[in-house]
Write a structure and sequence with these properties.
The structure holds two protein chains of two kinds. In chain A, about 45% of the residues lie in helices and about 20% in strands. Chain A is built from 13 helices and 13 strands. In chain A, the strands form three sheets. Chain A has a five-stranded mixed beta barrel with strand order 1-2-3-5-4. A five-stranded parallel beta sheet of chain A has the order 7-6-8-9-10, sandwiched between helices. In chain A, helix 6 (about 205-215) runs parallel beside helix 7 (about 240-250). The longest helix of chain A is centred in the last third of the chain and has 43 residues, at about 330-375. The relative contact order of chain A is 0.07. The model of chain A is unreliable at about 1-10 (pLDDT under 50). Chain B is about 75% helix and about 0% strand. By secondary structure, chain B is mostly helical. The chains are: A alpha/beta, B mainly alpha. The interface between A and B is medium-sized, with 22 and 25 residues.
């Protein structure tokens, strides 16, 4: 029995094989549509039964017929198949099946020649309950953790102030408004590139993965946020999708998850670089608070200036203290002191000189008295005379002079000229 | 090094030394006068530095009061 192995042989060969002997088709001898259709149908009919896991995108119950059509999507990729089944099968295994439900079905590929469409014909459909989905998530969580997708060492820090933020969220959603409004309130100049996607339902995961790729490829984007408001556990299931988790892990740009309420922890929260509890909380983790930053800077600046001012003032005090010391403040003092020294010395010298002078005075009087006592004037007064030659020599004997020599006679009251008559 | 090239700390340290020597005494008048002149110069340099620092602080304070540039 052929399987759904991707390594099936090429179609023309396969078709020839499927339908036995037919001439190969050529431009001269092409096959009619019915032959091709028949051959395709026969080939597909050889494919066996498979168990398929998928998500119901749409259920169409035709009135008046027992056939039910389901559009079965892959939850992680934009790929779907049509499933046909019987109303009884559906009522037996999944009586309350609605759009978005996860199902497990046993089906066989089936070709409908009238329209040339392929569908899966299901003979058993089981709705996968929430409990089992959560159990699967738990398993997936363990697997991803073991692979290191949640490793704290692998997490990157978003920049302090991102140039541009990529936002993945529902169109016109409260989450979008929360992130934008709160971010702008904190940092008015913040720039966003918003990519609106379905945030629940079968198309959510592929759209989010596409958006991630687009934003990750945009070099101007420093951080990406995936935001969604609160919802039921089923609604938030896309945020635990394995393909989404791997896409986030593969992102080179840091990713912030902001899904649901505080208590919701989809797997995206574990694999994201930063987990924000709510979209509002995401704003706090994306951009700094401008007012707060300005206040911090102002405070730092104030302290800075105050510190330097205090330093300058302290130095001014030291300088003032040095300048007010007498050595500097009263420079005349050093002259004045010396002036006083000089005056004192002058005074002393004068006093000393005065003593000396009066002593000398009396000494002089004494000496004068003695001089006078020794003077010949008194002798002359008594009538003696001193005889001197013209040269001034004193004549003591007659032999000292010759006749005709001029003599000078000194008397008490004057001189007298004389001539020697004979000796 | 001329007086203008001295840092505040250098000028202040030298000024303190000059004052100490003046206060200790035991030097000639000529030396005393020279020391005093040096001391006045050094004190002037210190004051110049402090005045400059204040002026710069005042200027920074004025700039800080201007509205911040738009980001």
């Amino acid at each position: 029995m052929p399987s759904l192995d991707p390594a099936t042989p090429p179609i023309s060969g396969a078709l020839s094989y499927a339908c036995g002997v037919t001439e190969p088709s050529t431009p001269e001898q092409p096959w009619p549509v019915r032959v091709v259709s028949q051959k395709v149908g026969a080939w597909i009919a050889r494919l066996g039964w498979v168990w398929v896991d998928g998500q119901v995108a749409q259920i169409t119950r035709r009135p008046g017929t027992t056939t039910v059509f389901l559009t079965l999507r892959d939850p992680s990729a934009d790929i779907s198949l049509t499933v046909t089944t019987n109303r009884d099968v559906l009522d037996l295994g999944a009586p309350n099946l609605t759009d978005g439900a996860r199902v497990l079905l046993h089906a066989k590929p089936d070709f409908y020649p009238a329209r040339g469409t392929l569908s899966l014909r299901a003979d058993e459909i089981r709705q996968v309950g929430l409990g089992e989905l959560l159990a699967r998530l738990e398993q997936l969580k363990k697997l991803l953790a073991a692979e290191g997708l949640f490793d704290p060492a692998r997490k990157r820090r978003p920049p302090f102030l991102p140039a541009r933020i990529g936002l993945i969220t529902g169109r016109a959603s409260a989450a979008e408004r929360d992130v934008l409004t709160n971010s702008r309130r904190r940092w008015p100049a913040v720039e966003f590139r918003v990519v609106n996607v379905a945030v629940q339902g079968p198309t959510a995961v592929p759209q989010m993965i596409d958006a991630l790729k687009v934003l990750d490829a945009d070099a101007s984007i420093d951080v990406i946020v995936i935001a969604r408001g609160g919802g039921s556990t089923e609604d938030l299931l896309p945020f635990s999708d394995e393909a989404l988790c791997r896409a986030v892990f593969a992102c080179r740009t840091p990713v912030v998850s902001a899904v649901g309420h505080e208590t919701d922890t989809p797997l995206l929260d574990y694999v994201a670089d930063v987990r924000a509890s709510t979209p509002t909380d995401a704003a706090k983790r994306l951009v700094p608070d401008l007012g707060e930053e300005v206040r911090l800077i102002r405070e730092a600046r104030h302290r800075l200036t105050r510190a330097v001012r205090q330093l300058v003032d302290r130095e001014q005090h030291r300088l003032d203290a040095v300048r007010s010391r007498p050595a500097l403040a009263r420079p005349y003092l050093m002259v004045d002191q010396r002036q006083a020294d000089v005056a004192a010395l002058v005074e002393r010298s004068r006093r000393t000189l005065g003593h000396r002078l009066s002593a000398a005075d009396s000494d002089l009087a004494h000496t004068l008295a003695r001089l006078r006592a020794l003077s010949p004037a008194a002798t002359l007064q008594r009538g003696y005379a001193i005889v001197q030659t013209a040269s001034g020599a004193i004549v003591r004997a007659p032999a000292d002079v010759a006749a005709g020599d001029a003599l000078r006679l000194r008397l008490a009251d004057g001189d007298l000229a004389a001539t020697v008559a004979a000796s | 090094m001329t007086v203008e090239e001295l840092s505040y700390e250098q000028a202040r340290a030298e000024l303190a030394g000059v004052v100490e020597r003046l206060e200790a005494g035991g030097i000639t008048l000529e030396e005393s006068l020279a020391l005093w002149e040096r001391g006045e110069q050094l004190a002037g340099v210190c004051q110049h530095w402090l005045d400059g620092a204040r002026k710069r602080l005042d200027a920074a304070g004025t700039a800080a009061k201007q509205p911040p540039p738009q980001p």
